[in-house]
Amino acid sequence: MGRPLLADAARAEPPAAPAAVALRGVSIAFLLDKGGTYEAVAKTDLVVAPGEFVAIVGPTGCGKSTLLNVAAGLISPSTGKAEVFDTALSGLNGEAGYLFQQDALMPWKTALDNVAVALEPQGVPRRQALDRAREWLDRVGLSTFADRYPHMLSGGQKKRVALAQVLIRDPRILLMDEPFGPLDAQTRQIMGNLLLDLWAQNRKAVLFVTHDLEEAISLADRVVVMSAGPAAVIVGDYPVALERPRDIAEIRTEPRFHEIHKAIWGKLRGEVQKAYALGEGRRP
Amino acid sequence: MKVNRWTLLALQIGVAIVLLTVWHLLTTVPVNGKKLLDPFFFSTPIDVLARVWKDFYTGTIWRHLGITLLETVLAFVTGAAGGILFGFVFARGELIAAVFDPYIKAANALPRVVLAPIFALWFGLGIWSKVALGFTLVFFIVFFNVYQGVRDVSPTILANARMLGMNERQLLRHVYWPAALTWTFSSLHTSVGFALVGAVVGEYLGSAAGLGYKIQEAESVFDVTGVFSGMLILAVFVIVIDTIVTAVENRLLVWRPGTQSTTAQG
User: Fold this and answer.
1) Homologous superfamily of B43-252 in CATH?
2) Chain B: closest CA distance from residue A94 (Å)
3) In the 3-class helix/strand/coil scheme, how is chain A assigned residue by residue?
4) Which of A53, B38, B110, B111 has the fewest CB atoms within 10 Å, measured from its CB?
5) CB-closest option in A93, A152, A166 to B260
6) Angle subtended by helix axes B211-220 and B60-92, to nearest 10
7) How confident is residue B258, by pLDDT bands cut at 50, 70 and 90?
């Protein structure tokens, strides 16, 4: 499955600034308990330009989250390297904010404290951090929920807090691992629009992992398709030439959206079917 | 099942009245010229209550209560501090945990009562031998809970905190420490109870003051009324302490699910 990338169309103009994230020849293999190794991702190249919103789609278990974790520095690749603004990444990616799929808020801190604590590593004085955290809760529409603990918040509200927690640090790169996966359809749309609003105000490089193709197209500038695992590779790279600002719910009715969806789904469907044939591509 | 608070309280008091009445009848009303239970061995509820009243009225009980309370608090504080400290060290240092694992298990499996005479030899008959006994009980409960709590911190919360740029010290303060405290507090009822057990058993086995001593002293002169009144005071004492612990717990663990009913939807 070593098909070449179809990436050229996406980068009509050569990027002047260094790439925000560049994965070069990255492969990831895990040691198995019963001996031997399992290659989750085979040699892969992926470049995200500053301010670019890239979505990775692929069948369940294809290793797209693994690839994201390499960009975050949470996993080191078996071969190849990750570069962040032209610097080889070693250890955690300090330029990146990471939005997890699962609940990652500290349950013992209120919404306000969860957001404010994100500024502590930068040495921001607590009072100032609290003021800025209040501003951010306001931006994600939760100003009246500042004193709530995570268990008193709904799934969507928790995601809003998590978004504020990540964005208050103003990272130059945003990594998102199926962040809206656990939410219901309507909440996902609302969160998607919120994300696009915030991103439009301050364009960061975004790497967004999802298995939902419609979500990927409606959010991203570029959609990257990964093959079914094991040894997943990128098998497609499609520009999304849709106007911004977008409304997630409305954009799905546009003819252009359907054309793009059809083109990508043609590729993705085959991979999804392969994954099912392999038992959903789960690791052995 | 949902019962009105006052109905519940009335039923609970009803149980006490029934039990006391039966006890009273069996020990005071002769059947065929013979009481079913000999008051010498079983005392009577009125005598017991009168003794309790006298103990409080004359004020002799306060000193014993104070000593037992002091021992309980000291045993709890030292045991919890030691348990938290060692729980942390063991949870963060896998080699230490692996090496000491059999010793910790062996020490915990030892019935603590056998230590009481040793502690009396080492620390004398004053409060410190009782504090030591309570310490050995509280320490292991808190130790195991903190150890578990620190090791079971959600990997996602940890990864998130790291991605936010926290260093080891900040992780300790914002993630590990609160997680460990949660587990400590969830074992608070048990550990405070054991601190009291340590104190009373220690007093019972050898001392000159405290509730355990009061009971032991009454037993040695076949003063059943004294034994029962001591037990009654001890029981009320335990309930009071437990109520305080519950209040502290509710205060400190507001963030935990189930402690408050305001859950938002949507």
Assistant:
1) MetI-like (1.10.3720.10)
2) 7
3) CCCCCCCHHHHCCCCCCCCCEEEEEEEEEEECCCCCEEEEEEEEEEEECCCCEEEEECCCCCCHHHHHHHHHCCCCCCEEEEEECCEECCCCCCCEEEECCCCCCCCCCCHHHHHHHHHHHHCCCHHHHHHHHHHHHHHCCCHHHCCCCHHHCCHHHHHHHHHHHHHCCCCCEEEEECCCCCCCHHHHHHHHHHHHHHHHHCCCEEEEEECCHHHHHHHCCEEEEECCCCCECEEEEEECCCCCCCCHHHHCCCHHHHHHHHHHHHHHHHHHHHHHHCCCCCCC
4) B111
5) A152
6) 120
7) low
Between chains, do B167 and A145 touch, taking CB under 8 Å as contact? no
Which residues in chain B are contacts of A94 at CB distance < 8 A?
165
Q: Distance from A255 to chain B by nearest Cα, in Å? A: 31
Distance CA(A38)–CA(A30), nearest Å, equals 5
Residues of A in contact with B177 (CB under 8 A): none
Q: Which residues of chain A make contact with B170, given a CB cutoff of 8 A?
A: 120-121
State residue A9's pLDDT score.
Answer: 46
Query: In terms of CA atoms, which chain B residue is nearest residue A71?
Result: B163
Which of A1-10, A149-158, A234-243, A271-280 is predicted with the least confidence, judged by mean pLDDT?
A1-10
Chain A residues within an 8 Å CB radius of B257: 151
- Name which of A96, A102, A120 is nearest B156 (Cβ-Cβ): A102
Q: Closest partner residue to B163 among A98, A110, A150, by Cβ?
A: A98
Q: Which of A98, A106, A156 lies closest to B157 in CB terms?
A: A106
ipTM of the complex model: 0.86
What is the per-residue pLDDT across A163-220, written as a single tens digit (0 to 9) for each? 999 999 999 999 999 999 888 988 999 999 999 999 999 999 999 999 899 999 999 9
Domains of chain A: 8-95+171-277 (3.40.50.300), 108-169 (no CATH)
Q: Do B264 and A92 touch (CB under 8 A)?
A: no
Domain with CATH 1.10.3720.10 in chain B: 43-252
Question: pTM for the full model?
Answer: 0.78
